[in-house]
What does this fold into?
Amino acid sequence: MTYNLHWKDFLRIAAALKSARYNIGALLRDVDSSEVYPVGDALVLPFRHVETLQRFTDEMEEPQARQALVMIVSQAFGKPMTLRAMLNRADAP
It folds into this structure.
């Protein structure tokens, strides 16, 4: 399974997800889709910018937003998955 193949579909669905302060779909556009990869049942999301990573992390502290996004990612990728956000090492200073 190629995870990047489904990334655009995932972003389109996530764009409709509004949370406390930010549009989660917009935050996810900062993820380097060529670097998205699974680790066990988690999907690693390498963000390009630390500010966006922090905003995303803040949004994921809201249980409803986190639950909705996990459900969306699980549907988009065809199996139960969680999310693991990190800073993309290639873009780190």
